[in-house]
Amino acid sequence: MFNQQDFARAAQALCDYGRILYSRGWSPATSSNYSVRLNEQCCALTSSGKHKGELTPADILVVDWQGHALTSGKPSAETLLHTQLYERDPTIGAVLHTHSPVAVVLSQIWPQDQLQLSGWELQKAFAGETTHEDTLSFPLFANDQDIARLAALVEQHMSTQGQGHAYLIRGHGVYTWGKDLAECFRHLEALENLLGYQLELLKLRQL
Ligand SMILES: CSCCC(=O)C(=O)COP(=O)(O)O
Ligand SMILES: [Zn+2]
């Protein structure tokens, strides 16, 4: 069903990124979940409830697109938000979900259901983006403890409005993806900074 060496490599990479993301303050405590595609049927994913700054390979398991565990462990509570992406787009190789203060606060106060950004050079950090003159759209979804329902809503949005590069969940965090973990991390880092710019602008406009 999957190659053990691929799994071992993916598990170690997820642990390494967990340390980075925790050290940046984007994955406090047991928040966040991360995954890497193994093949066309399954991915390596963080187990539920683990401290993301202290992950070991034993905290990573394999799930299929229905969210069923193929190795021992308890899959992330948000598994279906990862598998929805892998199932819809075979070019997606990694997904990162984080809870940074900037993303959580901005997503909570942003009034519209889309956050549109333009004019920032850093937009070009997203794959395929070539100019600051384009507008990037990031949808905001209401938080929901029913993850199957939220995953269905995300899928419905993407199938009608386009997949985009990332989305926000209000008061919760962000999901972003890429062809591999390195690209996914680049997208996350760009998104974090772009959201930070937007939050700063909102504060300045209140002065
Ligand atoms: C403690 S944060 C609440 C759960 C959450 O939002 C999250 O990202 C982590 O959930 P998991 O089941 O993947 O540990
Ligand atoms: Zn979360």
Describe this structure in words.
- The chain has 207 residues and is of the alpha+beta class.
- It has one domain: Class II aldolase/adducin N-terminal domain (L-fuculose-1-phosphate Aldolase, 3-Layer(aba) Sandwich).
- The protein has helices spanning 4-23, 79-88, 101-109, 147-161, 181-206, and strands at residues 33-37, 42-46, 60-64, 94-98, 114-118, 135-141, 166-169, 173-178.
- It has an 8-stranded mixed beta sheet with strand order 3-2-1-4-8-7-6-5, sandwiched between helices.
- β7 (166-169) and β8 (173-178) form a beta hairpin.
- It is globular and about 55 Å long.
- The model has no long low-confidence stretch (mean pLDDT 98).
- The structure holds ligand L4RZE5RM and zinc ion.
- Residues 29-33, 46, 48-49, 76-78, 97 line the site of ligand L4RZE5RM.
- InterPro entries: Aldolase_class_II_sugar_metab, Aldolase_II/adducin_N, Aldolase_II/adducin_N_sf, MethylthioRu-1-P_deHdtase_MtnB.
- Pfam families: Aldolase_II.
- It catalyses: 5-(methylsulfanyl)-D-ribulose 1-phosphate = 5-methylsulfanyl-2,3-dioxopentyl phosphate + H2O.
- Zn(2+) binds at residues 97, 99.
